[in-house]
Design brief:
This protein is an alpha+beta fold and 619 residues long. It folds into 5 domains: 100 residues, Winged helix-like DNA-binding domain superfamily/Winged helix DNA-binding domain (Arc Repressor Mutant, subunit A, Orthogonal Bundle); 196 residues, Rossmann fold; 60 residues; 101 residues, Winged helix-like DNA-binding domain superfamily/Winged helix DNA-binding domain (Arc Repressor Mutant, subunit A); 110 residues, no CATH class. The chain has 26 helices and 20 strands. The protein has a 5-stranded antiparallel β-sheet with strand order 4-3-2-1-8, covered by helices on one side. It has a 5-stranded parallel β-sheet with strand order 12-13-14-11-15, with helices on both faces. The protein has a 3-stranded antiparallel β-sheet with strand order 5-7-6. Helix 7 crosses helix 8, helix 17 crosses helix 18 and helix 22 runs antiparallel to helix 23. The two termini are 58 Å apart.
Length: 619
């Protein structure tokens, strides 16, 4: 049984399965498909296919085209962007999908369960991306050059995926792999910085002698740039300025003529124009070559005006590249990462939920949070010698009271790269929750709301950790856009960067603006106003707003909610001076008795504390 994507070829019963549905094929089309599937990743000429299936019989080559059309219809394959059968004009065909032996499945079910993500070469939750890269590698083996962009947020696992893919291509194709790292600032100062780093790796590798010889013959100026003169008395390589990108393209194609060559460029968002132009040239050239450019870039560092965006969009438009945009891991994948790191299948109760909620599926955040829990002794090994199972020894911390230092050191440089005016906008936004309205930012900064909306729109277009979330109608009939932080940890870092006095002023301005917007209907927003007054340290206004919110809840027959709000009001009234506290405590106690009596009369079960406390920022 051979499997490729959702299809399985049953060679015993000579039929095709798609998931659990059986597809009957006539004998000859089945034989053609079987031959292709049993010989994946290589060129199968017309003559080879005809000789294998029609030995000692003359058959018109047009018959093969007919069968290929039928097979593509069955497989849903697009000849312009083949997932299974690639046509190599005037030469033959190549089966480019990844093929696996699955044995004899029961009831036609031989596919990976979605409930338990597969681990591919040590990478969790990226099986589809690695399958896609294997498919591209098989096309590469047939001489079809590839350009692949791997994109995503910081820490999403781009490098881990690329490293796993390179190991697979070395195993599959014995490929030569060379990597160049783009460095912020440095790449802008030195043309082709990442390219020359990759070339130096090539010269130091097993194919170094061949690479040096080819560069000396075709691109001597590039060899000279690496610190070695061509072995020629008739050519002064250092006088060849500037280095010709076309010469390097031809040299790399010559090196990749017989054996696959993979050039990896990391952090392409920091690349200079010359490096991007070389990648563009390599992607657009039509000469067959077993050459792949595999590049990573962080999506939050590439604005709409960045030349990399224009390059990628143009290559996508002309079908000259592939893009793998990495999404956050699912909760099942996060659980598997934790099990792997802790080396135990059974996790402490609630650990996977806690880490998934606070990491939001970012692999780097997952590992950083786990290390934080261990270093702070929330997780400890059982047993006298500390070699037993990992167990929870203390309640997991509320991440809104601070960010693990490792994550703060990761996030902070991204924020510091922004202009001061944009940092202030984001800091003001962090005074709200993960979702923030533009009017609140304008209130904090005391600026025009329209100008703030335009600034937030620009940030949402440029940054991956802020996005536009919609708009809301305000009581005065006007509309205000609202936005969201893609990850709560970014919001928390921005919140903690501000001094306590600046945060307090911002919270007061938001509370007062809420009162202005909802004048005459303050009951509807009293709970949110109380949150900001408390965060500002204005205890009197906070208790007043909480009592207003409790009365509003009482009117809605939400007596348990009213009781919870009043209890919180009692707690924060402890911050008032003694005279004020005694008066307010007596009034709240009276209101609380009424709420409890109403609860008892209505037999209304109290809400779980987390539902009531969920509105609280805790900062």
């Amino acid at each position: 049984m051979k499997q490729f994507e959702s299809f399985r070829l049953d060679t015993s019963n000579e039929c095709l399965w798609q998931n659990k549905a059986q597809i009957n094929l006539p004998p000859k089309p089945f034989a053609v498909l079987r031959y292709l599937v049993e010989n994946p990743g290589r060129l199968i000429t017309h003559d080879e296919l005809l000789d294998a299936l029609w030995p000692e019989t003359y058959v018109q080559p047009q018959v093969l085209r007919t069968y290929m059309l039928d097979l593509r219809k069955v497989l849903g394959d697009d000849p312009a962007r083949p997932r299974f059968i690639q046509t190599l004009p005037k030469r033959g065909y190549c089966f480019v999908a990844l093929v696996a032996d699955t044995g004899a499945p029961e009831s036609g079910a031989a596919y990976i369960s979605e409930a338990q993500p597969a681990v591919f070469d040590g990478v969790v939750g990226r099986e589809q991306e690695l399958i896609r890269l294997k498919t591209l590698a098989q096309a590469l083996a047939c001489g079809q050059r590839q350009t692949v962009f791997v994109t995503g947020a910081t820490g999403i696992g781009k490098t881990a995926l690329v490293e796993a893919a390179c190991r697979q291509m070395i195993a599959m194709l014995s490929a030569n792999v060379a990597c160049g790292q783009c460095v912020e600032g440095l790449s802008k100062k030195e043309d082709y910085y990442a390219v020359t780093e990759a070339l130096r790796q090539l010269r130091a590798s097993a194919c170094g002698e061949m690479a040096t010889r080819i560069l000396a013959s075709i691109a001597p100026a590039w060899l000279a740039a690496l610190g070695r003169e061509p072995e020629s008395t008739t050519v002064d390589a250092r006088s060849m300025q500037p280095k010709a990108p076309g010469d390097l393209c031809r040299a790399l194609e010559e090196l990749a003529k017989e054996k696959a060559l993979v050039l990896v460029f990391e952090d392409l968002q920091w690349a200079n124009d010359s490096t991007l132009e070389l990648i563009s040239a390599l992607a657009r050239r039509r000469t067959p070559a077993k050459l792949m450019v595999l590049a990573t870039y962080s999506s939050h560092c590439t604005s709409a005006e960045h030349p990399l965006k224009a390059l990628k969009q143009d290559l996508v438009l002309h079908r000259q590249c592939a893009e793998l945009a990495l999404a956050p891991l699912a909760k099942t994948a996060v659980r598997q990462v934790l099990s792997r790191e802790l080396e135990q299948e059974m996790l402490p109760p609630g650990l996977d939920t806690f880490v998934y909620r606070h990491s939001e599926g970012n692999p780097l955040f997952v590992l950083a949070l786990l290390r934080h829990l261990i270093s702070e002794h929330f997780l400890m090994r059982d047993g006298a010698d500390g070699s037993g199972r990992w167990e929870q020894r203390a309640p997991f911390p509320d991440m809104e009271t601070g960010v693990p230092q490792e994550l703060e050191q990761l996030i902070d440089p991204e924020i510091e790269r922004l202009p001061p005016t944009e940092q202030r906008i984001l800091e003001a936004a962090s005074l709200m929750r993960v979702v923030f309205p533009a009017w609140a930012v304008a209130a904090v900064l005391e600026q025009d709301r329209t100008e703030i909306e335009e600034a937030c729109d620009k940030l949402a277009r440029r940054l991956c950790f802020v996005h536009r979330a919609g708009h809301d109608e305000l009581p005065d009939g006007t509309r205000s856009d609202f936005y969201a932080f893609a990850h709560g940890l970014y919001r928390e870092v921005l919140y903690q960067k501000q001094t306590a006095s600046r945060r307090a002023k911002g919270h007061m301005r938001i509370a007062e603006r809420l009162g202005e917007l909802f004048a005459g209907r303050e009951d509807n927003v009293a709970r949110e106003m109380a949150m900001h007054y408390e965060a500002a340290g204005n205890w009197k206004r906070a208790t007043t707003a909480l009592r207003t919110a409790a009365r509003h809840a009482h009117q809605r027959q939400a007596h348990a909610e009213a009781a919870q709000l009043l209890q919180h009001g009692l707690a924060i009234s402890e911050n008032l001076n003694e005279a004020e506290r005694r008066v307010i405590e007596q009034e709240i106690q009276s209101e609380l008795e009424m709420a409890r009596g109403a609860m008892e009369g209505a037999k209304q079960p109290p809400k779980p504390p987390e539902e009531i406390d969920g509105f609280w920022m805790g900062t």
